[in-house]
Amino acid sequence: MSTPFPFTAVVGQDDLRLALLLNAVSPAVGGVLVRGEKGTAKSTAVRALSALMPALDVVTGCRFSCDPGSPDPACPDGPHEPGAFETRPARMVELPVGASEDRLVGALDIERALAEGVKAFEPGLLADAHRGILYVDEVNLLHDHLVDLLLDAAAMGASYVEREGVSVRHAARFLLVGTMNPEEGELRPQLLDRFGLTVEVTASREPDQRVEVVRRRLAYDDDPDAFAARWADEEGAVRRRIVAARELLPSVRLGDGALRQIAATCAAFEVDGMRADIVMARTAVALAAWAGRTDVLAEDVRQAALLALPHRRRRNPFDAPGLDEDKLDETLEQFGGQDDEDPDPDPDGPGGGDGGEPPRSDGDGPRGEDDARSEPGEGAEGAEGPGNAADGTPQEGGSGAGERSAAPAAEPFRTKVLSVPGIGEGATGRRSRARTEHGRTTGARRPRGTLTKLHLAATVTAAAPHQRERGRTGRGLVVRRDDLRQATREGREGNLVLFVVDASGSMAARQRMGAVKGAVLSLLLDAYQRRDKVGLVTFRGTSADVALPPTSSVDAAAVRLESLPTGGRTPLAAGLLRAHDVLRVERLRDPARRALVVVVTDGRATGGPEPVALAGRAARLFAAEGIASVVVDCESGPVRLGLAGRLAGELGGTAVTLEELRADSIAGLVRDVQGTSRRTA
Asked: What residue spans carry the region label Disordered (predicted)?
């Protein structure tokens, strides 16, 4: 086994290390979700934590790591006789992104269960992680049903496996740590709420700190054992402090004043439900124990809020997680000092010293006011010069002829369901019909590889005609492996939704472009909820650009959309051809994921020789390949040419107006995108 990088040798990342240590002290806090860009020591810190966890006493031979002092009475390997136990390090179990449900929760031997009535159970990763750490890298890329199973087990402290009337339950209490890069997609708000704490990590911008990171990493790579030995004393001190904090934890008092501050803070930030209050309370208690105190102070409540609330304040996937610290301090001050916690708080505590806000003045005068007065002047003479917007894009009358500044998006709305016709086999989602591991049972087939979902009736039907020749004498059914049948199920899949957005001069009226952006933003919200991948192609002037390659991060698409400038000619053919290239490459990467192309345009085509004919030929490429498509018709005014509808016909799809796109439109409840297969049926 390779020597892990020492936890105490991680440079910076104070919030990350504190959150991990608090969960080591009190696993009831509920785990940690670590969000951040790649290369920020997320995985290194998590793996290093396992070496600090205290050793465990486990029942000898128990596959479920039962505590010999209080063994699980329902343990599948029990009942355990008192006495025999062994001591081993706490485990850190990693859940890979591509893991199956059986690998996570364990699997029953269905053949033996049916033929012999024996609960032959092979434990999964949840059993391995009991009383240790379960680490999920890229947790945002896990299938939703696996995340649900994982978080349910973490909340209940037990895992249940149920197959065709055969049930197995075992204890599953672990420290849950998930890491993710938000650029690759977000977790649903319901799942975010199930993680106790969250931490945002970024790479330091301080040269000295970056130098130290590189120096330590190179030293570790040269000789891991020698590097770990140099940090052994610090590691031992932290390990002893964790043990001491665990012992002190039951003695920590959470006073009424601290509870009022917790409740007031959660109410002030309008978090949903009561989980935030409970997590904050447990975190504040753990903070006090980690500090060696038996009373929870206001500084503990403040730090608990900074760790437990940011991810619970998001109302939609485009909201950046965060907390207004000024508002937090005002709330704590308003509801503080109402019990006997600390009559004379430390002046270097919350709001002062290293942990508080920077001072508003330097003692000579109100520098903050001077700075505020100077900001408009600096901006006016800087990037926001004549003819430029705040983001530096030319405005009308500026240096960029024919280009206009980005228009803000209109308020998003709930859209109709746009789905791909037919039945796919792509990644689990919520948009189009597909054969999936979860959903309603539609039939049975012979299993390909490991049996995962038994079709009981089909299995019995297959075994019944052979009972006499197999020598059946008793009541039990003689079942062979060839008799087993896999249930085929139909559910929903996520698709690749590729937006092709016209940003030309014909769309450049700010009110009109704002409505268009609002519609695309609405569709992006819908794509987020339906677990789609999204991409964004824009066209204007003389060319088309891939503003966002296909990704699971719909908030990245929203950012690119918001800053989209408009102006110039309408190279519709170039936009369609670029979208076709994007789909061709994506099919090589993920052939099972079907595409839905959403073209947002008024249908006009200008620039170059025969622009309308070129656009028609480009559109017919999509129709020939049966790519599902929909055209969002943005044409406005009393006189309409119907060009978007004509384009939809060339694509082999349908056209909807901005008004018809709304879910509450009287045009209908659900609109399926027409594909080539439906036209030729």
From this structure: 334-448
